[in-house]
Amino acid sequence: MGGQACVFYGAAQVSKDIDFLLLADRDNFARLEAALATLDARRIAVPPFDPAALQRGHAVHFRCHALDVAGLRVDVMTRLRATADFDTLWSRRTSFADARDVVYDLLCIPDLVQAKKTQRSKDWPVIELLVTIHYRENDGAPREEYRDFWLREARTPELLVELCGRFPERSRVLAEDRPLLKLASQGLLDDLRAALDAEVRAEQALDRSYWEPLRKELEQFRREHREGEW
Q1: DSSP structure class, residue 201
Q2: Angle 200-176-184 (CA atoms, 0-180°, nearest 5)?
Q3: How distant, in Å, are the alpha carbons of 10, 91, 135, 146, 152 from that of 143?
Q4: DSSP per-residue letters across 125-168
Q5: Number of C-alpha atoms within 13 angstroms, CB side, residue 140?
Q6: pLDDT, mean of residues 117-138
């Protein structure tokens, strides 16, 4: 669901860890524990490996010590900000198979774009590239949901101008939710760049607001850990 997924799609060259979104049920947690044991993965930070903490939106972090994956960091979550439930995300997933027929299930690009809308500045160029890749791979026969995704999420001024010129009626409809499409329709590139920057800042503020209560919980977890309560 994170940087490794972006590598698969060609929107990143390297990621130092691997992030998993998991189905939060008892049987699946048992399978996860078995997989972590195989990797000799040890928790490296708060919060504790607790389904209740995961369901509130926390990520649990592990470092692998098995020989062939030594040093690899694994982060697991069961909930992402402003995304659909797990079953919906799973139904929309993209699957890749390698030469050994190992299958890798990834968040589809639209869901990955939503998941990458964080307060971290480094995520936004990746979002821009993900949308551009999706457009270039599908612009020959665009489906309606693809067209709307491009108009809602494109972050390159020139691409937005192109999209509004190609889909003028739909861009006018979606401009009610994304006003900067009006600027793109008029080809006002400087104003469009400023509006895109403002859009990023607004999303970053939403992400900070989402994480603030979780951050306070992490501080409580740290105090409890220092005091030996778990």
Answers
A1: H
A2: 60
A3: 22, 18, 11, 5, 14
A4: HHHHHHHHHHHHHHTTS--HHHHHHHHHH---HHHHHHHHHHSH
A5: 1
A6: 96
pTM of the full structure? 0.93
Nearest to 210 by CA among 106, 82, 92, 108: 82
Handedness of CA 210, 213, 218, 219 (dihedral sign): positive
Give yes or no for a contact between 48 and 221, defined as CB atoms under 8 angstroms apart. Answer: yes
Digit-coded pLDDT (tens) for 135-187:
999 999 899 999 999 999 999 999 999 999 999 999 999 999 999 999 999 99
Report the greatest alpha carbon distance in the chain: 62
Tell me how far CA of residue 124 lies from CA of 35, 87, 166, 193, in angstroms.
32, 26, 25, 14
Residue 26: which of 63, 48, 55 has the closest Cα?
55
